[in-house]
Structure formats: C-alpha cells, structure tokens
Fold each of these.
Amino acid sequence: MGTLSAAVCERRPLVVLLGPTASGKSRVAVQVAKRFGTEVLTADSRQAYRGMDLGTDKPTMEERRGVPHRLIDLADPDQTFNTGWYRQAALAEIARLYAERQLPFVVGGTGLYIRTLVRGLCPAPQSDPLVRAELMRFAREQGRDRLYAQLVEIDPDSAARLHPNDEAKVLRALEVHRLAGQPLSAIHRLHAFQDAPFSTLLIGLSRLKEPLYRRIEERIDWQLAHGMVEETRSLLDRGYGRHLGALKGLGYRQVAAYLAGECDYEEMVRRFKRDTRHFAKRQMTWFRKEPGIQWISVDEGESPEGTVDRVVRLIERFLDSLEGMMSSDLGQQTTLGEESA
RNA sequence: GCCGAGGUAGCUCAGUUGGCAGAGCACAGCCCUGAAAAGGCUGGUGUCGACAGUUCGAUUCUGUCCCUCGGCA
C-alpha cells in the first residue's frame, strides 16, 4: 500500500540519490526506501547485466533486506544495453509506482541515465546494428580522420563539438544522420534537455577525495577476495568475449587482461584501482555540472544511519512542499534542490 | 677498503657533440543526448646529488666529496 497522497502523486515526484562509486549510496538507499515504504530503482549501466554481480557491486539479497530493487538484471552481457533501453524500463517502473501511490526512488551513479530520466532524451533514432557495423568498418579501413571528414560534411555543428579521435560519438552522429535524415545537432537543438516530466529532488552523496579513494581500494580488495576473478572467468567461459561492452566495464576488463596473460596479478589490481579512481573523478566532473543537486557531504565519522536521517529529512521537506503546491503549479519542476546549491 | 654501474619531475627513465630540461606512468582539470563503469580532450620549474674549476654560459667537460645498487674482499 502506497504512502503518497493523491495530491502529491499528481505532481509526479521523483527522488534521485546519486554520487560517485563507493560513496555508500546503496547502503543508505535501502534504509531510505524502507522509511518511505518504497523500492529502489537502480540507475547503473552495469548492474543491468545478468551474471555480473560482484564486479558491479550489486547489493546481495541480504543487503537488500526485503526492499525490491528494480532495473537490474535486464540484459545478457552480449546484448547492448543503453540509455534508451534504460529510460524506457525506468519510466515503466515509475508509472507502476504512481499507480500504487508509491514514491519513485532512483539510486545510482550513471549520470547520463539520470539526466535523461529527469530532463528527457532527444528523439533521435536508436542505434542500428547494421548501420553501426558499416560505419565501424569504414573507420577501420579508411581511418578515423576520413570518418570525421564525413561528419564535417553532413553535420558541421556536431563535428565542431567533437574531437576527431572520439570515434564513438562521431560514429553516433553519423548514424543518426543516416537514419533520421537530419543532423544530430539539429535534434539536440530542439530538445536541449528541456523536458521536465517530474517534480524532481536530486540528492548527491559526496565524500572527500582521500577517504573516497580509500573506500574504492577497500572495495576492490574485497571484490577480489570474494570471487571477482572467478566471476570474470565464468563469463568468458560462457562465451562472452572481451569485445563486448559489458566486459569492458571496470574490473572485468582488467581481470580479463590478467587472465589472458597480458599482465600479472599485481599489475591487474593496480589498474583496476587506478581506473576506478579515474572513473569516480569523471563522475564528479559530470555531477558538478548537473543543475539542482542538493549535496550531502558525508565524513568518515558519520554512521550510515546519520546519513539516512539527513536524506530522509530532505525528502520529507520535498514532499511537504509538493503537498502545499497549488494545482496551477502542476508540471513545474521544483526548485527545492537549488536552494542550497 | 677496492672495482664497476648509477644519482635528472611523486615513480621509472631518456637527453643535452656545453645554449632558459623531456617521455611514460602517477596525479590534476575538463567534455559528453541510445556504447556512459563506455569514449574523448588538456596540463611538465624540477636547487638535473653537493662543492669547486674551465667557459661568455655547466645539468652536460674536469676534480673532490656524499649517497644508492651490484661484485670482490
């Protein structure tokens, strides 16, 4: 049975808990979800893959403590999970929760997924394997510069924005042009992340760099001690090759290189930790630019319960503000999150 | 103690036939609209071990000393 009033539910509230890897989101999230009698909607591009559990730091059944976790285990490692797929699945879960009068509570660190959930995804056509394969072959045979030259020709605005070496994005822009018959930059211009389908509260969990990096290393040591190498080996044995996007994720990539004899164990650990630190840094760069995040900085001494309380208070205040809104405010994005930004 | 090799960026090292020192990694900053844990861009002043000599000029050549690592004692 849900906890949202009809009035609040109509305003389509959406609460997001985000932060860099190893900031402690998952643990806090379970407690927060419990307090509001709701579920956890994961926003994590890697936890979407089945059979990739340890390496993606999926909470165990025990850790979930009876709180349903959604949007994980949606795809097999040889499928290409992506932003569009995620968004569609997430919107379906959110609609279901509203029907049950429950608060949608999104938790994760994949910045793009969160952004497209909160501000929409431009209506460009989804990726087409055939077109993509053809473009990749062109790039391989003719070189990146020739690929980029094509983009300069058909979509100079996108080309100006992208570096010739950024093959993945150059490829995508060419793909869209071919499928949609118009440049990606034109589609972006119309969209510009202007959708606001929800009244959103964004809560960010931050930690100082040093303690965060230490937590990252500790988690990796734990993962390796609890079967990370075996999990990777088992994926490879089942025929999921290293070229797959899923196997290019943190940890799996480094362990696979080690299993292939490309480096020794110690070097693998070093790279795993280093690349994860770099990733956390990139996440923070992304989140810093994201408007409206209300940051909670967690210091080392704080208990998880303390953090939970702070998050709960923010959410209660947010829900109260929605309760008090006139119906004419419907559809407007709340600015609660920007007050202390 | 003797012989050999070496002391240059946080680390590993390159280099300057004498002219304001440069790579990789680490680290830092940034970009991102269906691959996003992916992909991409940018950032190098450090008593060139110390002191003295030669020189217009020494991190580079010479001498002495200090330190590190091998080998022999």
Amino acid sequence: MEFTEISAPEFDLAMTLDSGQTFHWLAADEGFVGTIGETPIYIEQRGDQLRFAGGDEQLIRHYFALDHPLAKICASFPDDAAMSEARAFCRGLRIMRQPHWECLASFITSSMKQVAHIRQMSQALRRNFGERKEIAGREVFTFPAAARIAQCSEAELRRCALGYRAKNLLATARLAASGEAHLAAWSVLGDSGLRERLCALPGVGAKVANCVMLFAYERLSAFPIDVWIARVLRERYFPRRRKMTERQMRTFSDSYFGAHGGYAQQYLFHHARKTTARTVKRSRPRKTANEKQPRLSEVGS
DNA sequence: CTCCAGGGATGAT
DNA sequence: ATCATCCATGGA
C-alpha cells in the first residue's frame, strides 16, 4: 500500500467525520475508509500529520477544506458563553467540501432521523446501488449517481429503510439526472438564488437547503436550524422567552453569527450533540403488566 | 415498552 | 401568514 503523508495543522479528522456533515466513513485500522467522489480512500491522523492512500494530496486538501483559515474563522464567532464552550470543544473541526449530489441526497434522507440511522441508510444505498471499490484491504462503495437512483423503484429505495423519504429522493434524483436540476451549474448562483433552487426540489426545505449550501457549496454563512440548534438557541440565547418561532430564530441567527455562521452553527451543533446528557429518563413509574394492550394477531412478513 | 430524531408537504385556521 | 397533522423507521 502506497501512503502519502501531509501536514494538516488545526485539523481533527475523527471529530470532523463524526460531526454529522458526512455519513459514510468507517473506522478501519488506525483511521477511516470511505470515498471522495469515485475515489476510495484510507486516511489516518497522527498529531498534525495525515497519512492516506487512494487519492492525491490536492483531493484530500480540497475535500477536508484544509485551506480554510480556521483560526480566523473561529475568531470571527460572537463572544458569548455558549459559543466559547463550543469553540473550545470543537477545536480542529472543519466544514468539508462534499460532492453536490451525495450531500443533497443524504440530507433528503435525514428528515426526522438520528445521525446513526442516516449513516445506515447511506450505507444501504451505497451497497445496493453504488460501485464497489477496494482500499486498504477493505471494500467501500461510492454513493450512487443521481442517474442510478433515478432508475430505482420507490420500493427498492424503501428497502434501504428510507420510509416516506424514498418518494422524495426518487423525485429529486430524476430531476438531477434529467438535467432539469443542474447542481453543478448552480455553483455560480448567489446564496438566495441557490437556496431558492434547492428548496424547489422534493424533500428539500429551508433546513436541508442550508445543510447542502454549507456542506457542498461552501456557503459558510448558511445556518441550518434543526431540533438541536433550535434547542441551543432557546436555552442558551433566549432562556426567558416563552416560545420562539422559526421566523424569530432565523432572523436572530442570520444577523448574530456573522459571515461564518455556518461554522458557528456546526460547532454549536456538535458540542450540544456530544455533551448533552443522554441519560435515560429517571425511573418513571411503570405500569404493571396486567394492563397490557391486546396485540394484533401476528401478521406475516 | 416509550420517546425522539440534522423535516417537509399539506390542509385547516 | 401561522398551526396541526401525517409521514416510516430504528436507536436509546
């Protein structure tokens, strides 16, 4: 195996891959295996050094955005308690540059799903419809192109545990495959124009559009508001307010977090998700078993 | 078992 | 314009 070694200061590979922006990298040996576009990659980190196989330096630097001026970006965050905690916790976390379609498709499937399950759906789509590759003695699968998904039936996609999301993924895949939705060409659009195009796609609303803008189009001010971020805004920024509407959160975040709001958002998201006590609710008194609901008679699978 | 998850589309106020 | 409901699935 041919390895290349490069310097990558101010970067935390494991945290970046675990921060809920990409969903397919798997732990392998001392590092991870996955794909960057069609290229299978093995990559590991030792201190400030990255060792990788399967791609070239330019591909790695671009995908992991090693050129982003992370210190300056972090210094641009607003100076408040929640942001300072997140910034300290997320040192080395970078916003990657993902392929347009792969990112869009992944976030269409993300609706009302935990990160762990989005990973599961991504793997299922790859294994069933992607191209098999080998790297570091392991098999990896590329994310299926829009044209390949467009050939699938809704039932095939549902077999990847997509549920109601299958219909949206299929419809958007057809638009992308036909060229009616030309994702690459949209790179030249301004933020509002790009957001408008994305939101016109089936299964894409403001939240998914902002994720795709941030993670695939390098729009670093895009600020996705999911249930975690909404909770952070309510609890850390407006603890007195009785209720905050989507509109109020949007107005605040767009004006408060600045030109790199997307980075700030990702730091707040990752910090909240990794530190919020996930303790099972305190021994809630349980109903005794004699009130058990009558079960439907067993149905065949 | 219950609760919840990187929401969106639709129809009713 | 805001609000309620439904949509599937599996981890915790």
Amino acid sequence: MKQSSSSAFRSGSDFEEAMASRVRSPDLASDMITKLRAAGLRPTRTRVALSSLLFAKGDRHVTAEMLFEEANQAEVSVSLATVYNTLHQFTEVGLLCQVAVDGSRAYFDTNNTKHHHFYIEDRHELIDISPTNMNVGKVPVPPDGYEIFRIDVVVRLRRK
Amino acid sequence: MKQSSSSAFRSGSDFEEAMASRVRSPDLASDMITKLRAAGLRPTRTRVALSSLLFAKGDRHVTAEMLFEEANQAEVSVSLATVYNTLHQFTEVGLLCQVAVDGSRAYFDTNNTKHHHFYIEDRHELIDISPTNMNVGKVPVPPDGYEIFRIDVVVRLRRK
DNA sequence: ATTTGTGCAAATCGTTTGCATCTGA
DNA sequence: TCAGATGCAAACGATTTGCACAAAT
C-alpha cells in the first residue's frame, strides 16, 4: 500500500519537499500523488493539498465552502473557484461522489462505494448508511433505452 | 365531490365568473377553490389558476420556471416570484411535495402520496415509481433524538 | 516548450425578500 | 375595512466562466 515517497515522482525535484511541507505526513502527500496519478490527474500542489484534506480523515461529506475554509486556514491558499473546479474534477474521475439532498448546496462524499444516507435537515448533516444495513428491494425496469447507473436513498430525519 | 360552483363562494360576486373564464372548465375552477379552502388557503385568482394548471392533468413534476411559462402563456399573468411563493405555500399545506434530485433546480410533485422516482439525467425528467413496484427494506435506527419523516429514493437513469 | 491548472473577478442562475399596491372575506 | 396576496425589482447565495498568469511534464 504505502510506498517510499521518492518512488512517486521524479528525483531531484523540489516538488516532493514542497508537497511534504504542506501536509502533516509526507506519506500522506505521496499517497495522494499516487492516488491522483492513478485517477489520471496531474498531482499539482492544489490537488494534493485538497485531496489530503479530503481523504486523510476517513469518510467525509463536504460542501465547496467548507473545504475552501479548511484549506485557507490550514493549507495553501486556494480560491473558491478552484475548490469548485477541483471537486468536480475529482467527481468526474470517481474519487468523489456528489449527493443531492439539500437543493441549495452540493455535498461531495469521499465514500465512493455504494451506500446511502441519513440527512439531518436541521443540522445540514449527512451520515453514511452502509448497504449492509439497508437495501432496496426490487427495482422496476427502466424506460426503453435507459439503464440504471445509480440508486440514491436519502432517509430524512427531524428532531423528535 | 364536485359541487355547484355557486356554493363555493359568496353569491353576487363576479369572482366566480372571473375564475371560470380563466380555466377550460368552470368545474375545475370550483374544484380547485374547494381544494384550496380545504387546505386552509384563500382561493385567490392566482392560486386557482396555478392549481388548475398543476392538478388538472394528473401527476406532474414541475419547476417554478416551467409553471411560470405555462401560466403566462395560457392564463393570468403571474410574476415568477409569485410562482415560487405559491409553490412553497402549496408545499407547506401538503398539496405538493418537493423533490431534490438535481441540486440546481427544485422540482415540485403533484403526487403527494408516498412514492419514489426515476430521474432521467439527460432530459431532466422525473417519473413516478409507485411504492408497489419498489420498496425499501429494513431501515437502520436513526441517531438519538431524531426520527424519520421521509425516505426518498431516486433511481438515476442514463441512456444505454 | 507545450500543455494543463490556477486565481481572480465578473457573470450567471435559481431563488428569496422588501415594499408599495391590490384584493378577497 | 383590513388582513392577507401579489408584482416588481433588487438582493442573494451558490456555482460557473473568461482570461491572464503560473506550474507541471
């Protein structure tokens, strides 16, 4: 899994050092570089920094605004526009998936395996539901010419 | 069910005539007046006109923009803001329900019974799925202090 | 060197709000 | 009469885009 950081990029570059200084663990950065390369994205500083934030702490559900604040506080300064662009790029290559629950904001989920969600409306908070704990029964046949590519289940919660 | 139109509102009013002239069938208008009154909303011209459009043709999934165009073409001129307000009022009193599938637009569904949806992404189109044809299995217990008030299932479709 | 990404500000889109005016009970 | 609705325009928040600059291969 983990590999020596030098294996992930060209030697003699100060890219490695620059990257390492931006995140807590140099190993994390190199993991991210590997991950980005595997996804076909060039591992730029911004992408490495953002993916480190996103993927370091297990499953997360973030809005662009949330990630933007997090990044600007602790890491490289990024513009909000770039955060949006990056989140969409990550989504396109399958590193993230987008969850439509709120209408007003877009949530991005670092868990890209099949699963569902609780949505706590008054806290604007998402919680994963493993497909083990909840599965959808029979699904009707889609209209002609179309196929199912995803099934989203949102269990909406309110304070008792 | 249906009742004579004069029974629905004060006699001597030209409200009835005005309403009747705005929709194909005066009976439809009076049905709408009844429906609105039952929901605790005053049957104003705008509300009667919009509800006639919404509820005359069976189950529909509309955006504010769609209803706005429809109304302005065929009926009383309404402002887009009023369409939004009216859709929300209808939702609050349970005549409509709001479906969050697209993130960018809000859809309003005239079917307010429990059911699910196909969502055809490339056409931005919703199709009802009766709960008879699809049901969700066991649902995990919600976190403490919260209760489930709705479960949304969206089956996303793509062209084959 | 060439291609690809980034920052910024301005543009856009859907939606909401404030307020003066109108209308139904 | 008078609370409640409506229209309009302006305000708004989230997201996207255009373009000059910077960085990665």
Amino acid sequence: MIPRTEAELFQRARALAGRTLGSIAAEHGSVPPVELVKAKGWAGQLLERALGASAASRAEPDFQHLGVELKSLPVDARGRPRESTFVCTIALSEIGDVEWESSRVWRKLRRVLWLPIEADRRLLPAERRVGEPLLWSPSAEEESALRFDWEELSGLMGRGAVEAITGHLGKWLQVRPKAANGQARRRALDADGVGFATLPRGFYLRAAFTARLLASHYAIGRP
DNA sequence: TTGTGATCATCT
DNA sequence: AGATGATCACAA
C-alpha cells in the first residue's frame, strides 16, 4: 500500500485524476459528508489513504521515506486556487533558533505532490473531481522568495514580536492563526526571552503563489 | 494536548 | 470578490 518510489506515488496519483471523491471514498470505506463545514479535512485525509500515506499527523512530510508532502488544492471552475494552503504550525519558542534549511516550512515544501480538487461550492463533496497531479519542487527563484518571507516572519517571531504579525505580511508566505478556537494558547518568548502564552499560528502559502504554480505547469489559470 | 487535514465566516 | 482571522475533526 505504501508507495516505494516517487514514480509509483505519482502513477497512483495520476490514476485518481478525473475521478470523483465519492467513487474514491467508496473504495476506502469512507462516507462523504454532505457539507465540509464539519469535515474540513475530509478530502485531504481521503487522498492520503488512497495514496498510501500514513494517517499519522506529524511535523514531517506525508511520505517521509520519499521526502514528499501531499497537498490537496481546492480550485474553482477556471482552475484557480480557492484557498490559501496551510503549511505547518510554528514552534514559537524555537523559531528564532532555526535555519531555513532545517525549518518545517522548507522540509515540507521542498517536494510536494499537488492534487487539485474541484471545489465549486455548488458541488457536493462526493461529486467533486480530482485533477491531474503535479509533483513539484520550488525553483531556485521560488525557494529564494519563500526563504525571504520566512526569514522576515521568523525574525519577527524570534524577536518576540509574534503579536505584531498579521496576515498582511509576507509576499507568498504568511502567518495566520491555526487553532481549535480563539481560546487556544501556545508558549512563546517575548523580546527578553521570557515566556508568555499566545494564539497558536501557522505558515500558509498565499493563493497567489499556488495560482502561479498551477499556471506555470498547466495550460490553465490564464485569462 | 499538539500538529495535520483544511475550509468557514467576516471584514474590507 | 478577495483576503484575513477564526474555527472544526481526527490521530498520536
């Protein structure tokens, strides 16, 4: 069940292209929800199962032995991403000591299997089709741009300014809340290295980034 | 309880 | 409309 090579993983992903989530769900004993409001991660978790990823939720790529991260990407009828893409949570008390090469962001984004999913709100989850997969690594320019954002944001957090960060910062990568609710708290360090509790946050890729990514690899997304 | 899977819902 | 801030379910 676990793909042994990247090629095998990609081949398996290509076999899903054009199929509906409902038909894939039927093969894995999964019952499609009528709405995603209480099942936001359903499609992503179904695709993990269908492709043989471990269901484990760790701060590592989904296919750790291959170094590949699986990301479903909701797209509209024109193939444009409908949402930003969550990358990882932020260890606020350590972020100041981490380098880009060993960061969670880079470990997850250095190799990604993108799986576009039809995400028109008028479609039931079961009716939505899977698109052609894209096995992607950032180009040198893309990596450089992502690293620039990451270093700016990480620098601020490392200096204790996490609460000064808003979703407006970062050209391609942004920091936004990532929590069960507004009462959730995570340990962070202030400018003097003193611990305090704050809302958990995560790194997200802006939809503009994934839109460019799709446009440069598919014949879509261009007016 | 924390991180991963994300989308929802509100504001601009 | 698009983006930011808020939120929901599940596994380990």
